[in-house]
Amino acid sequence: MSMAARFLDSLKATYQYYHSAMGNVLVALPAAAAALVTVALLAPEAESTMVAIGRLRELIRPAHLFLAVFLPGAAATVYLVMRPRAVYLVDYACFRTAPNCRVPFATFLEHARQVPTLTERSVRFMTRLLERSGLGEETCLPPAHHYIPTYKYCTLEAARAEVDLVVFSAVDELFAKTGVSPDDVDILVVNCSLFCPTPSFVDMIVNRYKLRSDIRSMHLSGMGCSASLISIGLARNLLQVAPHGARALVVSTETITPNYYVGNERAMLLPNCLFRMGGAAALLSTSPAKARFRLKHVVRTLTGAEDSAHHCVFQEEDEHGSIGINLSKDLMTIAGNALKANITAIAPLVLPASEQLKFALAFIARKALSGRVKPYIPDFRAAFEHFCIHAGGRAVIDELQRSLCLSDEQVQASRMALHRFGNTSSSSVWYELAYVEAKGRMRRGDRVWMIGFGSGFKCNSAAWECISPARDADGPWATSIHRYPVDIPDVLKH
């Protein structure tokens, strides 16, 4: 189909949508009122009819007619025009890790010992980290990290190869699952924080799938592990101004290859131990056809105006010039504050009236008594059946479980995703959603809360409602779901 033909079809669809929404209101209501008056005036001239007409003339005056007919019609028109369109998740797909990319702890530590700049003290530190991390023995790293010494093979070409492997595999599976052609994609949003090549990820995807020349495309970089929910919010906003039924492809990943830290700063060694290869692709649309979830809310909280929050996840050079991500010792405190702010914003949107009342009264009491009243944490179990907490690490999951008073089963998806895949950055919430569906726990009407944390510092949320659960467990968990859940000890001893 030519570009001109597609433009005409889009224009026609837009015209039909607004014509049916506004025209019916503006025409039908005045016409009905006029018909009522006409029938009354043309009725037989019986005495009772004349009396009725006289009374009708007394009642229906121009101002009354305007208020009764045209003003509601105008209000209805404004409402229809300004009302945001519903946005749906057609489907999603996660990158399926291959056995040849698996990195057991022993392999990881052996490779670390071959890096001449890493001291034995640093290797022992990473050993203790791994034993307490909550990661399992099947997490995967990109091909470049399987060579010795690792840092010599973390080239630009190897980083692009990881993008090809992870991103294209996820997008291929998504197109296969949905039956959507690449030509049908109107919007493309990609997020990857630490690797931003030229041409960008969106250009790589456009070139691979030969997407249309008029596609709206964005690459989000430096947004941290919560960037997937930022991408979802951006795609939702773009769909509001696109023709009805438009489709948005959202791709979330983090390229690990060029980000191997070879220094000895402990705060910068954590990412080496926690981050693993992964990615996800999701297809959004304003058409409910074949949709599996409906997007209810996206709430973003940014605390970066505070210096401590801004610097708590910071890419920098150590004293020897080695580049890495420095994770502050105050990270959990800052994450807790960001979570409280996000809860305050999302609570009125999702909580039942009883929980909102308790929350409001506690909030007023704290303000009136200068914080001497203990804050009330709403029971979000009354608002959601499933929780997908960013698998940033065991401490992150523990803190959210404690703060939100969640059960072990409600955080199971997060713990198992961390164990099986590691911290896959922004895509981790999609692996968790896939876990819930692979276990057969998703039901029509179930509500899902995705929570992500990221540099800046950010806490972002997305609320979904299930329309159609997955029919099978095919996905990233297909070969391992029968083994989960597994017991994860506090300290893993070899």
Automatic annotation (TrEMBL):
Name of the protein in question: 3-ketoacyl-CoA synthase
Record domain FAE: where: 79-367
Transmembrane parts of this sequence: 21-43, 63-82
Gene Ontology molecular function: acyltransferase activity, transferring groups other than amino-acyl groups
Similarity remark: Belongs to the thiolase-like superfamily. Chalcone/stilbene synthases family.
Keywords associated with the record: Acyltransferase, Membrane, Transferase, Transmembrane, Transmembrane helix
Cellular component GO terms held in the UniProt record: membrane
Beta-ketoacyl-[acyl-carrier-protein] synthase III C-terminal domain span: 385-465
Pathway(s): Lipid metabolism; fatty acid biosynthesis
The protein's Enzyme Commission number: 2.3.1.-
High-level lineage: Eukaryota, Viridiplantae, Streptophyta, Embryophyta, Tracheophyta
Pfam families: ACP_syn_III_C, FAE1_CUT1_RppA
Cross-referenced CDD domains: CHS_like
Origin: domain of life: Eukaryota
Alphabetized InterPro entries for the sequence: 3-ktacl-CoA_syn, ACP_syn_III_C, FAE1_typ3_polyketide_synth, Thiolase-like
GO BP terms: fatty acid biosynthetic process
